[in-house]
Amino acid sequence: MDYQNRAGSKFGGGGVASQSATNADRRERLRKLALETIDLDKDPYFFKNHVGSFECRLCLTVHQNDGSYLAHTQGRKHQTNLARRAAREQKEGKGADGAVPGLLAGVQVKKNVVKIGRPGYRITKVRDPMTRQNGLLFQFQFPEIAPGTHPRIRFMSAYEQTKEEPDTNFQYFVVAGEPYETVAVKLQAREIDRREGKHWSWFDEDSKEFWVQVIFKTERDERYSAVPGLAPGRR
To answer: Which residues form the Matrin-type domain (predicted)?
Structure first.
């Protein structure tokens, strides 16, 4: 930084940097260091939304530029979430190189379980009668599911799968229920409305059917969801 022209300092001398200037210099050094060591194209949690901002899909934060995102990845919150996800995946027995293909295709999972095929499924388009939000209703059949096992779901970005060329316009909805193969549904990369009554799942123990409703946020909610002071949408 240039300290000699700072107000109150002698010519040729170094003035005392303010707290804000010190923080700006630190952020810039972190950004340059991260650019040398991190390839954003290979970061599975890096996402550029439709308004030009950058999102961290691991921490659910929004950043105005790549420098801010890179500084975030070096921070305590991001590193803690990375450690928590790694510990959870290790506990669940998920392989780091587990592959997830496109629409309802099998996922390779490194486990000593004999797979018996893919579950049956049905997908229905739905619309919220009050907010007119579009969504999907999934119905999966697990007639031979392991006793005491409930199907699990997860949303993942295009960079977390290895079967297809990553496309930021899409995301994957993953469903797992042993001893069936884990399957994935390719969806538009739109934000999911996770409010109560919008996004839900239910497993019928008698019929062995698994129901999941996914409702997408409106364009207005997606545009203003990260703006402080504004409501997230109509309830």
So the answer is: 54-84
